[in-house]
């Protein structure tokens, strides 16, 4: 009974948060323009039409399963088996990019004397083309022909994270500003700017200056990150 109540509570919160993240026409147009380069990068690559297609490529090793680690934690919707649209996979090279972002961000955190108990929050990974279309119709920042549908994009919460396994964000935390350190995401943005200049990726700060701010990140198809970057 308690487990069923817990699952229902998570579902209720998920639906509540989904309804909050609506985009204005101006924001949709801004993101459309900023995403043109990445959609051009990946336009000739097929999208994943179904969850079964995703799972088949995961079995083949084309896609890699993303799991929480010392730098990233997947948000709760990935842990709910009833949410079939939220599959924890991305292309294997893009998974290595995610790893590299985490390692380099952690280096910056250490250099700036910030807590090693802080972990970034992954909010979105691969999506089917059908689910992407649903998001578009519901007024989300979901572009047609998105690299998300090809396993080449991932999103990181831009105004929240986990600390000591507790969610620190304006959507779930009471007295959010008493705990949140904006330097965490300032360092992430500095890193993404550097990696963008190095032609590793494109990133877009979506829903900027709102409670749903997030970093949408897409791998440049010409960039193939090494397996480990700790000695970079």
Tags for this entry?
8 strands, 8 helices, two-stranded antiparallel sheet, disordered N terminus, alpha+beta, 232 residues, six-stranded mixed β-sheet, single chain, 18% strand
Account of the 3D structure:
The chain is an alpha+beta fold. The chain has one domain. It contains 8 helices and 8 strands; from the N terminus they run H-H-H-H-E-E-E-H-E-H-E-E-H-H-E-E. The strands form 2 sheets. Strands 2, 4, 5, 6, 7 and 8 form a 6-stranded mixed β-sheet that branches. The chain has a two-stranded antiparallel sheet with strand order 1-3. Strand 7 and strand 8 form a beta hairpin. Helix 5 packs across helix 8 (183-197). The longest helix is centred in the middle third of the chain and has 20 residues, at 92-111.
Give the secondary structure arrangement, pairings included:
Elements: H1 2-20, H2 25-34, H3 36-41, H4 51-60, E1 63-65, E2 72-74, E3 89-91, H5 92-111, E4 118-124, H6 129-137, E5 153-163, E6 166-168, H7 176-179, H8 183-197, E7 201-206, E8 214-219
Parallel strand pairs: 2-4
Antiparallel strand pairs: 1-3, 4-5, 5-6, 5-8, 7-8
Helix pairs in contact: 5-8
